[in-house]
Specification:
Layout: E1 2-6, H1 12-23, E2 29-33, H2 45-55, H3 58-69, H4 76-108, E3 112-116, H5 141-158, E4 163-168, H6 171-177, H7 183-194, E5 202-206, H8 211-225
Parallel strand pairs: 1-3, 1-4, 2-3, 4-5
Helix pairs in contact: 4-5
Length: 226
């Protein structure tokens, strides 16, 4: 199993598509999207994604988290958002658990598994980490739900990728590819990904360079692992 990580604009999807196409000429390959954004999602989460875009998406989430962190009076909008986030997190965790079963089965059957992103428990709330960790310090139903979510993410830690390829890119290049992002967001995501240690074998490849060069380096790293 090879996991491809990188901030927005680093070329994860482009790289994965190329690698899958090339390795399919010689091996049985399956690719899996393990994020929560624009990739494949369950039927239950599709309408949630549409609603999230309508109400403001990530910006709303950041504002709500800031409200809780500053111990301000929690607005009705923030409370509704928190309930929606719990439903989203539960649905997403169940979705990822199902995908993990398919990944393990495919790897055990000798297929090359390529993943776009990979769930982790090192940094909660960021870079495909658990979303409900703050409830684990409480009690009652919310704590049980958060503990359940954590156990699913721990399954991914116990089934770590054989190789992690981290695609790095300069903020300037990333912004050109993803103009909706800010430099601060790019740098923050890059820092988080660089600090993730989820495999014994990690390769770092700069995708600010021409794709013809970087794709060859990715292919070489995977061949060496195989």
């Amino acid at each position: 199993m090879v996991a491809i990580l990188g901030c927005d604009g680093a070329g994860k999807s482009t790289t994965l598509s190329y690698v899958k196409r090339e390795f399919n000429k010689k091996l049985d390959v399956v690719s899996v999207y393990l994020g929560s954004g624009d990739g494949s999602s369950s039927i239950l989460r599709k309408p949630m994604k549409l609603v999230a875009r309508k109400v403001g998406g990530k910006g709303v989430g950041h504002a709500v988290e800031k409200e809780y962190a500053e111990n301000k009076r929690i607005s009705i909008k923030s409370r509704l958002y928190s309930v929606a986030k719990i439903l989203w997190a539960v649905t997403l965790a169940k979705e990822k658990k199902k995908k993990l079963r398919n990944i393990v089965k495919a790897r055990n059957n000798g297929l090359l598994v390529l993943t776009d992103r990979y769930p982790q428990i090192i940094i909660p709330g960021a870079s495909d980490g658990p979303l409900l960790s703050r409830y684990r310090s409480g009690k009652g139903l919310l704590k049980r739900i958060a503990d359940w979510e954590e156990r699913i993410y721990e399954l991914f830690a116990r089934n770590a990728p054989d190789l992690v390829i981290k695609l790095t890119v300069s903020p300037e290049t990333a912004i050109k590819r993803k103009p909706e992002m800010t430099v601060e967001e790019i740098r923050n995501k890059h820092s988080i990904i660089m600090n993730l240690d989820i495999s014994e074998h990690i390769a770092i490849i700069d995708t600010s360079r021409p794709f013809e060069k970087t794709r060859g380096e990715v292919m070489k790293k995977i061949w060496e692992m195989i």
